[in-house]
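Encode chain A's predicted structure.
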Amino acid sequence: MSESEPQQAEPSGTSAPPTPGKDPLRRSRTSGAWFTVVGLALLLLLLVVFIAQNTQDVQVSFLGWDGQAPLAVALLLASVIGILLAVVAGSLRILQLRRRVRRTSSRG
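Encoded structure for chain A:
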């Protein structure tokens, strides 16, 4: 060995050397949950700013219903209804695929 390389002590044999493929800072459920919480907090902050900036009343008409509501509330309500419709459609598709998988696996 050259003089510039430091000498390393040999391990006592009781502990295994660290595996080079295993990352000690790998992603975990906790880190994923933390990023989700931070992302949702930022989204909530943006939502509060949106509501604070859109307080003027607007005329809302839907089918036979007419009324006045703040612009932010009308837009948020429309968004929530759209999200719920997408969740229902997606859930029905997931159930359909699960049934198909169950039928296919029970036959084979």
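The beta strands are 57-62, 65-70.
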